[in-house]
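FW: tagging you since you asked about this chain on Friday. Here's the raw sequence from the shared folder, copied in full. Didn't touch anything.
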Amino acid sequence: MRLFFTIPIAVALFALQSAFAQQPATPVVFGWAYSPDVPQIAQAYDKDLWKSENLEPKMIPFATGRDAFEALIGGQLDMAIMAEFPPVSGALRNLKFSILATLSKYNAMRVIAKSATPITSLSQLAGKKIGTPVGTNVHFDVADAMKSQNVKAEFVNVGPADLIPALLRGDIDAASMFPSAYGNAKRALGAQYQEVLLPNVGEAFILVGSDKFAKEQPDVIKRFLAVLLKGEALVASDPKDSQEVTSRYVKGALPVEQVQAIWPDYSFKITLDNGTFDLMAREGQWVRDMGYVKEGDPSRALYEGFVVKGPLQSLAPDRVTLD
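HL: got it, structure written out here
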């Protein structure tokens, strides 16, 4: 009797597996960039990890996280990866979106100066002109750090592409720029390159979903995160391969030697943790204080209200550590 029942069950299971394998891949449209900040994505493409979860991703590249966030809110994307800052203002404005996970963190934000003599502290920049794209996270980073040390300086609004030329010309004394520009600044300034690491600030790269997608497609989100967790395991087990893969992914923008140089400044771990939301609350308060957004209460509770825990919690409950 045991054999009689076992064979049909085995046949049925095989049929179900075959049917799943024959199902068309699930399309998912997400926004990101050819950036080294989330090497889990680079590994997913390099090793075709999407196939294991029967996903057919379409990545739409965006120059900035703000652009990707606007496309997400406008219904053009299912999900997007970006630094945490665009959702900070979006939450204050009560826009509809969901925070699904933190994918990585950058822990070495800095201010860069042009000087023939060493600059080792922010106090040496007191009264100086500091260029930065005003109203962005890098503006917040330097302003927050200088406020904590009671150092006052003049902030000058300079676009990302113009910061290094402005430093070279002497229009500004220092600059707070996006990390992707650090290497170019060092090469351009040569012996006059000076940098000061900014304490207690960082950058989190988060996965954000459209409100509709998060409500209607939690299983697809779970499968997407499952792919990225597999990519993360490869990043941890073979950093050298991951650095080479990441260099290929950014299409030559960063040679592998530069990827290796910045690698220690990141932590690559998919989480929903307190640190990201503490940072968002601080940034939200700064946005309100500066008058960039006048509505909303920039509290931890506000930002946690946008979290959808289910997909990550079902895959890796130990990664969800929000209080």
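FW: The chain has a mean pLDDT of 92.
HL: agreed, and The two ends are 53 Å apart (CA to CA).
FW: great, closing this out.
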